[in-house]
Amino acid sequence: MELKIPPPVTSGSLTFKVNRREPELVSPAKPTPRELKLLSDIDDQEGLRFHIPSIFFYGNNPNAYSDPVALIRRALAETLVYYYPLAGRLREGPNRKLAVDCTGQGVLFIEADADVTLAEFEKKDALRPPFPCFGELLFDVEGSSEVLNSPLILIQVTRLKCGGFIFGIRLNHVMADAGGLSLFIKTIGEFARGCHAPTIPPTWERHLLSARVPPRVTQTHREYDEPATAETEPATGDGETLVSKSFFFGGAEMSAIRRLLSPDIANSSTGIETLTAFLWRHRTAALRPDPNKEMRVIFIVNARPKLKNPTLPRGYYGNAFAFPVAIATARDLAEKSLEFALRLVKEAKASVTEEYMRSLADLMVAKGRPAFSTDGAYLISDVRNFADINLGVWGKPVYGGIGTAGVVDFPGSSFYVSAENRKGERGILVPVCLPEKAMQRFVEELEGVFNGQSVVSSTGGNKSHGKLIVSCL
């Protein structure tokens, strides 16, 4: 039975209709074990108890004779035989400990059609987050976004008129991180190509990131600071209309940012470290918080390379990252150079060691699985690996990443997405969500830097870089 056809969806100047069929449950293709599997103490922290959506656009492959919906549905069922915990439901035990009841009930799946082509998305410059049509391309089935006792994954495959399709997926974050989700989708792609088993077999092994007995919090974890009780001026423009835009940082933009730095630190810092410090500094300036307000940048650090005793198996798909935080007052960020912010970012990133991760797991148990502090915070996650997700015969996506800026009730987050600009140059696309007036100032901040006129007071920001307009999509 088909759902009622909704009114046309508008994405920028692009208008189209989406016709969805009734949601269904896709279960593992073969019987799977019925058991209760504990999550790790990194998995079940409060800050991951939400469903996070992603979206992938795939072009038409004339050699793909199968219907993408039918093929992906079948490949999904085969994938769930190996990833069978994802077909279960979450339960909460004593001390808020989460476990998966491996019921085999399945994941939610929606078949849909849209009367639009991929070329129309590209022509209208609508292949960028935030997608105003996102809710139609990954429909929020009523009751499906609860943390407990709900499907852990929602997938919608939307056929396009050109033969391409859109693959939307929403995951309960406690089950996997970006690396784990990539493994899962790549396995669907392998089965869609006719493989009989995953190239990288998934591994549960969540006990490898469980707390020690007794817990020993040996590191400083300021990302979990308790909220201040005193009244403070909000740093997010509370009450204003929120606006989302995407900003492209290619070679020219990154070169302009590096010229704000001394050669030594510019050459010893990664592009991601540099961009993170830059965005933190100029976003703070755009918000205009109280000068004494502590501003934070929280960025996801993959801990897999840090863990040696023991190492995590290659197929481990649980959460294996930390939220290190850099902290400075708004005044210091404004008055000191970009180098000041960058050094803080590098120090926070370097703090993530194996002992840091063990201490973090212990903190979760000792303090009741707290959420990270969002007061004055800007969270950044790197999901550029989504651009490499090969989904069977259709290859890599034309766009693969996040569909919106911000997550759930926390608009102060951005994601680094790998993308191309109109010239075919690959760079980093960053969706940003800010109050309307702050967004205007943020655009001005970036244009000031790229046009050689530093808006933020900076000892290193007064050099002329020539004319370069920021790409705001």
Descriptive labels:
473 residues, Chloramphenicol Acetyltransferase, 2 domains, seven-stranded mixed sheet, disordered N terminus, (Z)-3-hexen-1-ol acetyltransferase, CAT-like_dom_sf, transferase, Plant_acyltransferase, transferase activity
CATH class of the largest domain: Alpha Beta
CATH architecture of the largest domain: 2-Layer Sandwich
The parts where pLDDT drops under 50 for at least 5 residues are: 1-11, 230-235, 457-473
Helical amount:
10-25%
Task: Please render the helix and strand layout as text.
Elements lengths: L8 E3 L2 E3 L1 E3 L3 E3 L9 E3 L12 E8 L9 H15 L6 E4 L5 E4 L5 E8 L3 H6 L10 H4 L15 E7 L5 E8 L5 H15 L49 E8 L1 H8 L4 H5 L3 H17 L6 E6 L1 E2 L18 E2 L2 E5 H6 L2 H13 L3 H13 L10 E6 L16 E3 L11 E8 L5 E10 H15 L20 E2 L1
Parallel strand pairs: 9-10, 13-17, 17-19
Antiparallel strand pairs: 1-2, 3-9, 4-9, 5-8, 6-11, 6-18, 7-8, 10-11, 12-20, 12-21, 13-16, 14-15, 19-20
Kindly describe this structure:
Belongs to the plant acyltransferase family. Keywords: Transferase. Pfam families: Transferase. This is (Z)-3-hexen-1-ol acetyltransferase. With 473 residues, the protein is of the alpha+beta class. It is built from eleven helices and 21 strands. It has helices at residues 68-82, 118-123, 134-137, 178-192, 251-258, 263-267, 271-287, 330-335, 338-350, 354-366, 436-450; strands at residues 9-11, 14-16, 18-20, 24-26, 36-38, 51-58, 89-92, 98-101, 107-114, 153-159, 165-172, 242-249, 294-299, 301-302, 321-322, 325-329, 377-382, 399-401, 413-420, 426-435, 471-472.
